[in-house]
Amino acid sequence: MRSPTDRPAPEDVVAISGLTRRFGQATVVDHVDLVVPRGVAFGLLGPNGAGKTTMIKMLITLLAPSDGTATIAGCDIRTQPARVRRLVGYVPQLLSADGSLTAEENLLVFARLYHLPRSQRRARIDEALASVGLEGSARELVRNFSGGMVRRLEIVQSMLHRPPVLFLDEPTIGLDPAARRDVWEELRGVTAREDTTLFITTHDMEEAEQLCDQVAIMSQGRLVAHGSPDELKAQVGPDASLDDVFIAMSGGADSAAKGGFRDVARGRRTARRLG
Ligand SMILES: Nc1ncnc2c1ncn2[C@@H]1O[C@H](COP(=O)(O)OP(=O)(O)OP(=O)(O)O)[C@@H](O)[C@H]1O
């Protein structure tokens, strides 16, 4: 694994250096260094309030860093934000599809936002719907979709411009087990076909095991561990699960208890809208 202090190499899709964000007196992302190579599925794990969403928002240029910086496919988030936005797809925790539009209308909105040439839009939208099994629901209102269908639509709408890196903030929160498995399968399929680097946040260890080649554990704004799931499990003990790693390295219940009202309320809102 490359050290974050090495110079970014072309194969490093995400290279983060000293990235920090403060809200008032609170430092919620604290001098994070991290390198994610091309083609890797990377999972940022951590309890509620650890700083995962704040980190993603800085990487996709929705939030300015207080200190430090990062590059996405070689472009600096501080000095080249417009270029970075063309290089990333983002599926937020909260709703990004419009329930009052059909699936294909939602995709058309994103095709325009991403400035896809008019001549390519129809084919790209049809291909996107078919790639996640939604071709039969193209003209249905999204408000009538199941939670899993909404997530599948959000994944392909955020990839219409074929970004090299796709960020997903807790992609299966609020979904039932069958829908979660469907979303994992579709995610693995579309990202492999498009050669997309995946950067997800989750506190679901099964999700991390199923999807991620590499994981890092974030606790109170700092990265406290980074490696493959097997490497981290071996550090904790011969029979350790990823849950054991999470509890041992994130400070367990003490750290989880720090997630405040804002964090819990957001999780519940997401679960409600997908349920
Ligand atoms: N705009 C803001 N103003 C003040 N504090 C904020 C703001 N956004 C986030 N925070 C605080 O920063 C901390 C980190 O929040 P963040 O959403 O990044 O955590 P998280 O790891 O993504 O949590 P979750 O797993 O619940 O999504 C929390 O304590 C949160 O309340």
From TrEMBL:
Alphabetized UniProt keyword annotations: ATP-binding, Nucleotide-binding
GO molecular function, one term: ATP hydrolysis activity
Domain ABC transporter positions: 14-245
InterPro entries, A to Z: AAA+_ATPase, ABC_transporter-like_ATP-bd, P-loop_NTPase
Record flagged with keyword Cytoplasm: no
Secretion signal, residue range per the UniProt entry: none
PANTHER family per the UniProt record, alphabetical: LINEARMYCIN RESISTANCE ATP-BINDING PROTEIN LNRL
Protein name, as recorded: ABC-2 type transport system ATP-binding protein
